[in-house]
Design goal:
alpha/beta, binds pyridoxal-5'-phosphate, 2 domains, Aspartate Aminotransferase, domain 1, 3-stranded antiparallel sheet, 396 residues, Aspartate Aminotransferase, domain 2, single chain
């Protein structure tokens, strides 16, 4: 059996996205800035896509700026909010310890430029606490940036409450909603969001396209100098095929959100219940505030990397949710922020589902993972060492 359970890394493109993309790779080749019919045709399509994306977020079309990816939207939003803050003499930013590197590395750069950043702790369950955010707010705070849904452990932050607090204090609020848009209801109006980043390839659109929502009252500065595209703020001829595909994918996700959420979270809950039966296993994240498709576990006594390799051999595509990919053996900053010791954070497994997964696949995962974990433990010196201090949970 083959199971793709790494949808937090990227998703398969949907039929709807591919169908929307095809004409743009054929007849619809005009440059939207051209005045002739081919240009107008492309421009109408682009306007339609912008309207569709705006509608899904409860925003206005002029508040949507298409970008090359979610990372770009994060960079743009944060550097821009910082620039606006500095203009007003405010150089303090609040974020948290489990943000994506697109946010964390942008903040690091700003710190080098003289901004000070408070990183809120997330506690054992991976959630920021409102009272701690409130206590961290200062008269010179210009921006709060807290992600909507975490990509490793799936925690859903109290976005609406954070937004309300920021609005009350007159502080800009940005959220990296890359793991939320297309997966859970997102309403920039009701959720009190000023700026929001999203990325197409996390909801069945192609790679290489994302968007920034920026509330119309914010005087956003140009990010890429050039032509008049994206209201002059991001020059460069629009990636029409990718943008049309993203709009189609998002429309489809939003139209089927309720049924998708029900199907995906039922699979998630079955996975969590099944994996919890493995001895010395820990489910990461919060039981109640959790994205429908993200499951994160740590298994004591084994290496996440070996687990992944074995699962790959069994046809299961998963992830460790750790930064090991870059060759470093450091466990993920997200798992460490939960207070997990290094040796436990090393044995992590992230399974991320989409509406394309099935219960049969979940059953297959639940058949494979416990076996693989057991086999790896039998060969693990760390596990053997642990057995000196505890009863062997595998003893018949
Ligand atoms: C994937 C991801 C990003 C980056 O999006 P790209 O389009 O791949 O640049 C940012 N934040 C989160 C939470 C993500 O999961």
């Amino acid at each position: 059996m083959f199971v793709y359970a790494d949808n937090a890394a990227t998703t398969a493109m949907s039929r709807a996205a591919a169908d929307a993309m095809l004409p743009a790779m054929g007849e619809l080749y005009g440059n939207p800035s051209s005045l002739h019919q081919k240009g107008r045709e492309a421009n109408y399509a682009l306007m339609g896509a912008r309207e569709a994306v705006a509608k899904c977020l409860h925003a206005e079309p002029r508040e949507i700026y298409f970008t090359g990816c979610g990372t770009e939207a994060d960079n743009w939003a944060i550097t821009e909010a910082a620039r606006l803050g500095a203009l007003a003499g405010k150089k303090h930013i609040i974020s948290d310890a489990i943000e994506h590197h697109a946010v964390l590395h942008t903040l690091k750069k700003l710190e080098k430029q003289g901004f000070s950043v408070t990183y809120l702790p997330v506690h054992e369950n991976g959630l920021v606490r409102l009272e701690e955010l409130e206590a961290a707010l200062r008269p010179d705070t210009c921006l709060v940036t807290v992600m909507f849904a975490n990509n490793e452990i799936g925690t859903l932050q109290p976005i609406r409450e954070i937004g309300a607090l920021c609005r009350e204090r007159g502080v800009l609020f940005h959220t990296d909603a890359v793991q939320a848009v297309g997966h859970v209801p997102v309403d920039v109006e009701a959720d009190n969001i000023d700026m929001l980043s999203l990325s197409g390839h996390k909801f069945h659109a192609p790679k290489g396209v994302g968007a920034l929502y920026c509330k119309k009252s914010i005087r956003l500065e140009n990010f890429i100098e050039g032509g008049a595209q994206e209201r002059g703020k991001r020059g460069g001829t629009e990636a029409i095929p990718a943008i049309l595909a993203m709009a189609a994918a998002l429309q489809e996700s939003c139209a089927h959100m309720e049924e998708n959420m029900a199907h995906i979270s039922a699979m998630r809950d079955k996975l969590i219940a099944g994996l919890s039966r493995i001895p010395n296993a820990r489910c990461n994240g919060d039981p109640d505030h959790r994205a429908p498709g993200i499951v994160s576990f740590c298994f004591e006594g084994i290496e996440g990397e070996s687990l992944l390799l074995r699962l790959d051999l069994a046809g299961i595509c998963a992830s460790s949710g750790s930064a090991c990919t870059s060759g470093s053996l450091d466990p993920s900053h997200v798992l460490l922020a939960l207070g997990l010791p290094h040796e436990i954070a090393h044995g992590s497994l992230r399974l991320s589902l989409s509406e394309y997964n099935t219960m049969e696949e979940v059953d297959y995962i639940l058949q494979q993972v416990p076996e693989v974990v057991r086999t790896l433990r039998q060969m693990s010196p760390v596990w053997l060492h642990m057995l000196e201090k505890m009863e062997d949970p595998y003893k018949e």
